[in-house]
Every structure is written in C-alpha cells, then in structure tokens.
Amino acid sequence: MFTPLGRPLIAVGLAVAVLALASPSMANDTVVETAPSYDDLVARLDALPSTLEANAVYDAAAARAEQARALPNPSIAYSRENVYGTGPYNGTGNGETTLSINQPLELFGQRSARIQAARSEANAADLRRVQTRWQVAGQLALTYAEAEAAARRYDLAAEALSLTEQDARGVAAMVEQGREATLRGVQAQSEVEAARAALDETKALRDSAFARLSAIAMLERPVQAISASLLDRTSNPTGVGADDPLAVRVAQAELDAASRLVTVERRRALPDVSAAVGRTRFRETNDEAFTVGLELTIPLFDRNRGGIRAAYAEQRAAEARLIAQKQEVRAERLAAEATLAASNSRTRAADSGVAAAEEAYRLSRIGFEAGRISQLELRSARAALIAARNAAVDARIARVLAEIDLALLEGRAPFGESR
Predict the structure, then answer these.
(1) Which residue numbers in the chain have pLDDT < 50?
(2) Residue 84: left if φ>0, alpha if ψ -120 to 50, beta else—which one?
(3) Cα-flanking dihedrals φ and ψ of residue 96, to 5°?
C-alpha cells in the first residue's frame, strides 16, 4: 500500500522537502473545487451520455420485442358487382353489395419466429448495455486516476523545485566561502530554472487532466482537486465471470439473434395465408349470403433465397466472432491478471525505492554540507529521489489500467463488485 510522505522537515541545518504524494493540489491554492470520489461518480453512471444512449438502445429493442407479439391487422373490403352494365344491370339497381374482412393467419411458425428473433435482439441489446456501463466506469476510473496522477506529479515537481533551490542555496554558500568554484553556482542556478520550467509544464498537464475529468464525469463545476485517492486502492481478482465473461456472453447473444433471423428469413419463403369472411346482399331479391374464402400466395418468383443466404452468412460471421472472442478473452484475462499482480509488485518495489532514495538523499545532504561529497553526487541523489517518486506514480497508473481491463472482463466497475 502506498504511504504518503510527510511535509518538509528541517533538522540540524538539513532539509528534505517532502510533499504528500496523495495531495491533489499545491498548498498555496486557497479555494479549490474538489471532485467527488470515484465511487460517487460510479453511482451516477446512469446520468452519463454513453450510458443513456445504451439504455435507450435497449429500450428500443425491448419495445420491438413487445411489438413483435402483435397480430397483423385485418383488412376490410367493400365492393359492388353487376353495376353500370346493360339491360337489367344498367345503373346500380340490381347490383350486388359485398362487405368482407380479411385476416392474415401467419401459419407455418412465422409469428413465433418473429417473436423469438425480437427477444434475442433485446437480450443482446441488454448485455451490450451492461457492457457499455462497465466500459464507461473504466473510462471514469482511468480519467480519475490520470487526474490524480497529474496532481501528484505537479506536487513532485514543486518538491523538486524546492529541493533544487535548497541545494542551490547550499552551493552558493560554498561558493562564497571559496569551497566550490563559481561554475558550480551557475550550474545550480540553471538546474533551478529547469525545475521551475518543469513545474509549469506539470501544472498545465494537471489542469488539462482535471478539465477532462470534469467533462467526462459531467460535473457542474470544473474541479481542481481529488477528494479520495484511487491510485492507492488495491484490488485482487474476484474470479467473477471466469467461466462466462461478459464479452463472450455478448457474442453468444449476438449469435443467438443471428440464428433466429435465419429462421425468420426461411419462414418468409413460405406462402402467406389469409382468411376472408364476407356478406353479400342481392339488390334484386333483397336476399343475403355469406362468403368464406382463403387466400394463399404462391412463392413462384420470390422465394427469399437472397435473404436466406444473407442470414446464414451473418450467422457464420457471428459464430466466427464468438470463437474469436472466447480465445481473445481467455488471453486477455490471463494477461490482465498477470499485469495486475506484476503492477502490485512493482508498486511495492517503487515504494521501497522511494524510501531508499529519501535516505540516500538525506545522507548526501549531510555529506555535501560536510564537504565529503561533491555537488555532482548530491545532484545525482536528488535526481534519483525525484525519479523514484515519479516511478511510484507510474506504477500506480499501471495498476489502475490492469484493474480496468480485468474489471471489464469480469463485468463490474473497476475496484468494485460485479452487478
């Protein structure tokens, strides 16, 4: 677990400036807007545009599945026969009036095939909605961690400037005493200016990282600080979804939908059957009679062969995607677990390196002020300390990335439980 460092300490003329790595902003910031915690942002996932879009797509698919259950509408027809002819059929006096109702019957499993296909599409849309939700959570985790890392790097740059200025003052004192050449003082001042430029650069990176976090999280006001650390959180593989990862379930649902569409296209090649019931009124005798009939289409010219071939091709494509997804997910899961374990080890090693670099720099300061080591050795120890602290931040970013990859495979938010 990462241990935040303390504030600068001064003892016996030695000063080791240490800023808390977990501190999100410089101490001279008087009023800052703090971002909600990562857990609070995850709780608001449903309000983000990508999640809203995925929910709307699922709602549309669910509505189509409900609509697929509807029976086809009947049609009504009105006709008059034996009118405007010759002889007794001149005009409409002896015309026969027929009123009939036609109802498509949807035989041969046409309706059930349509319903099952729509349900499969809705199921696939539901799984894609869940997948999008965890993708958005992963994007939030990465943006949050990058903003926190940028703030820490800014603090480290400020700390490096403080240490460099402190060393430069020590060199200047030795130059005045004649213990160091004037060139050393010029070099020390050059290092101060370089550290100041690095501080300005990290400030710009920090501000842009917080701007991205404010935009992606849809925050009402821009933020400049992190309320709760995400870089210091650890996560262990839960094993959730190891046998049935979310990405594989999505691919399987898409294959099921494609298979159902094959059935739909095959049913479309069968004849359409309609039943008709009508009543005819004979004007001449004022009698009435009922008519009953069936209408059957003949699949002579259009047998939907192209549609069937297209559906089978889409099914084969879905099968190939499923096979590829299974292989890819298996490899990605092993890689994510290995990367997460390695990043945990890397983080522990980086923290140990920071402690060792701090002690080395402290001893170098003592030796430099006592005249036992050179400015170059002190500069090397300071550079090693700064590099070690930056390496600790890099290790935590790598751990967050590994956790994001693993969480998406397991179907959960990073650093959270599956749902």
Answers:
(1) 1-29, 241-242, 418-419
(2) left
(3) -105, 125
The full length of the chain comes to 419
User: Torsion-angle region of residue 203: left (phi > 0), alpha (psi -120 to 50) or beta?
Assistant: alpha
Cα distance between residue 162 and residue 283, in whole Å = 110
Contact in structure between 250 and 124 (CB atoms under 8 Å): yes
**How far apart are alpha carbons 15 and 165 in whole angstroms?**
11
**Contact present, 109 and 378 (Cβ < 8 Å):** no
Q: What is the pLDDT of residue 417?
A: 57
Is pTM beyond 0.90? Reply is no
Contact between 382 and 16 (Cβ < 8 Å): no
Half-sphere exposure of 80 (CA within 13 A, CB side): 10
By DSSP bridging, strand 273-282 and strand 14-16 are: unpaired
Q: Give the integer Cα–Cα distance in Å for 209 and 354.
A: 25
Q: Who's near 69: CB < 8 A, 6+ residues apart?
A: 115
The reply to whether CATH 1.20.1600.10 applies to domain 9-71+106-269+304-410 is yes
pLDDT value of position 114? 92
pLDDT of the residue at 372: 79
DSSP state of 46: G
Least Cα distance to 317 among 260, 254, 265 occurs for: 254
Question: Tokens representing 324?
Answer: 């590829």
Closest CA to 231 of 153, 286, 157, 173: 153
Query: What is the per-residue pLDDT for 137?
Result: 93
Q: Which two tokens stand for residue 79?
A: 């006709």
